[in-house]
Amino acid sequence: MSSEISIPEIAQRCDEIRSLLNEYVVGKESLIELINIALLSDGHILIEGVPGTAKTTIAKAYAKILGYSFNRVQCAVDTQPADILGLRIYDQQKGDFVLRKGPAFSNILLIDELNRLNPRTQSAFIEVMSEWQVTIDGERLVLPTPFFVIATQNPFEFEGTFPLIEAQKDRFMYSFTSEHLNPDEELEVLQRLGSGRLDWQRYFASLEAYTGMTDLFSLRDAVASVHIEDRVVGYIRDLVIATRSNGDIFLGASTRASIAFYKGSKAVAALRGRDFVTPDDVRAIAPHILQHRIILRREAEIAGITPESVVSDIIRSVEVP
Question: Per-residue pLDDT for 75 more than 90?
Answer without folding.
Answer: no
